[in-house]
Design brief:
45% helix; single chain; 11 strands; alpha/beta; globular; binds iron/sulfur cluster; binds S-adenosylmethionine; 15 helices
Length: 378
């Protein structure tokens, strides 16, 4: 019998008397950081449909004030699935013998990035498993320089290539990368330790984030939601971590089991995973106000309109996959990943309809610099 890993939904105890939800939301709409730890945990755990609706509406008001009814596009390029790490939840982990490992040749990466640029996506994300080697560092440096040569300032290059040394991050920054996405996965070191082998260190990941910030990257981080053993209290701590690390961008998504991984027997309730994912998006918008927030693909695995629901709950970024179709089925972090069969241009049409369906427009050609970064950086 598999273990049931539905996160606890009980409210954490708080010594302060509980404020009415409407008052709480009004205060949060008014100004950032208005919510205490117990308030955040309470919002994340909301279950009643009318309470969740109030939460999403409040978050949407803040989003409209920050970036308007506009969605920024980041073309997602899954440039390789070779990974030296062994995260217990991820289908790309080193010890999974099943995926056919690939690394897209440099010319092809540049061609796909060029396609995203020509479509007037404002940015491109180069994402892969984690590789630390001189050859890899130099290859990424070359690719970044080539994309930068045609994209210039109006096409942001975002990297999501895992933990690296300061020297490597600096080199890629000098080559022209503006942003880096590195999820902390969970802000709780003890929970992190249960989800990773002993040689994977939470503190190294945290230090990488600090380094990236110091080097002047626009910093993206995030967590998985509904992890085995994770509680609303943990998720509230994640939101506080985003504040403390001074993140500019957030990418969060529900955890989904992959059968070829050690956590593959975890049982999750898809409906609740979606609710928790949306609650976290909304709580992040209400707490932090001015960060870019992605409506992640995993939400679409849980409901066909999962990403649109996230846009209505405060997200303002979509990351359409622009990787050639031939590679996509080999980049399965979790099972039932959507759009693995669609060509990039099909995705584009589908996106237009999806964004219009929530009454928003796409900010074509706009790199979508996070308001937070634009405000606090010199
Ligand atoms: N290797 C890089 C890293 O780990 O930072 C970037 C690629 S990694 C595949 C991107 C993200 O996928 C991870 O940060 C993790 O949050 C997410 N992920 C991996 N396995 C997942 C799963 N089973 N369910 C949901 N998200 C998952
Ligand atoms: Fe590798 Fe990233 Fe997957 Fe961990 S989450 S196994 S680092 S691809």
């Amino acid at each position: 019998m598999p273990a049931v890993f539905v996160p606890a939904t009980s409210r954490p105890s708080s010594s302060a008397p509980e404020r009415a939800l409407a008052d709480l939301l009004a205060a949060a709409v008014e100004r950032p950081y208005a919510l205490g730890h117990g308030d955040l945990a309470r919002l994340v755990a909301l279950e009643a449909p009318e309470e969740r609706r109030a939460l999403y509406e409040a978050a949407y008001r803040v989003k409209l004030r920050q970036t308007g009814p506009r969605v920024f596009l980041r073309g997602l390029l899954e440039i390789g699935n070779v990974c030296a790490k062994n995260c217990l939840y991820c289908g790309l982990r080193r010890d999974n013998p099943h995926p056919r490992r690939y690394q897209i040749p440099e010319d092809d990466i540049v061609r796909m990035a060029r396609w995203a640029f020509d479509q007037r996506f404002g940015s491109v994300v180069l994402q892969s498993g984690e590789i630390e080697s001189d050859a890899h560092t130099e290859s990424i440096g070359r690719v970044v320089r080539r994309i930068r040569a045609f994209g210039g300032d109006s096409f942001a290059i975002v990297l999501s290539l895992g933990e690296q040394t300061e020297e490597v991050y600096r080199l890629w920054k000098e080559a022209g990368a503006a942003r880096y996405l590195l999820r902390i996965e969970t802000s709780r070191p003890a929970l992190y330790a249960r989800l990773h082998p002993a040689d994977h260190r939470w503190s190294r990941r945290r230090d990488c984030l600090l380094t990236l910030k110091r080097l002047g990257y626009q910093l993206g981080t995030g967590v998985m939601i509904g992890l085995p053993g994770q509680t609303p209290d943990d998720l509230a701590a994640d939101l506080e971590f985003f504040r403390d690390i001074d993140a500019d961008m957030l990418g969060m998504g529900p955890f989904l089991p992959h059968s070829q991984t050690p956590l593959g027997t975890a049982v999750v309730d898809p409906r609740r995973q979606l609710e928790l994912g949306l609650n976290m998006v909304a709580a992040a918008r209400l707490y932090l106000h001015d960060r870019n927030l992605a409506a992640t693909t995993v939400l679409q695995s849980l409901a066909p309109d999962g990403r649109e629901q996230a846009l209505r709950a405060g997200a303002n970024v979509l990351m359409p996959n622009v990787t050639d179709r031939a590679y996509r089925r080999h980049y399965l972090l979790y099972e039932n990943k959507p759009c693995t069969d669609e060509a990039a241009d099909e995705c584009r049409l589908c996106l237009l309809g999806r964004v219009a369906s929530v009454g928003e427009t796409i900010a074509w050609g706009d790199p979508g610099t996070p308001p937070h970064f634009a405000t606090v950086s010199p």
